[in-house]
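INTERNAL AUDIT FORM
Audit reference: QA-55
Scope: verify that the stored structure record matches its stored sequence.
Auditor: D.O.
Record contents follow.
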Amino acid sequence: MDYVNAFWVGGLICALVQILMEKTKLMPGRIMVMLVCTGVILGALQIYQPFVEFAGAGASVPLLGFGNVLWKGVKEAVDKNGFLGVFMGGFTASAVGIAAALIFGYLASLIFQPKMKK
């Protein structure tokens, strides 16, 4: 049942974002920033963690989950280091995911020979 919940929750998030992209004039970059900020806000309100426990990867993989990871990292760093944790926590919490995205993106570009759009 975990796979089913992850599938329908992740699909619902993607469908809602697609509707937002189609029905508004917001640019995709702004929508992505809005999703990350929404994840941070929902994490700060302690609404997102029960959602992640229910949906698993369906809630933790989209950009909302990235915002939640940033929030958790900042919260832990502030508890440990005080005010300087505001600047350190997000980088520490998300470093592995960002590094993996860069490395695998680079490897994919070597394998598939990307071309510029015309």
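Auditor finding: record pair retrieved intact. The CA atoms of residues 6 and 58 lie 4 Å apart.
Action required: none
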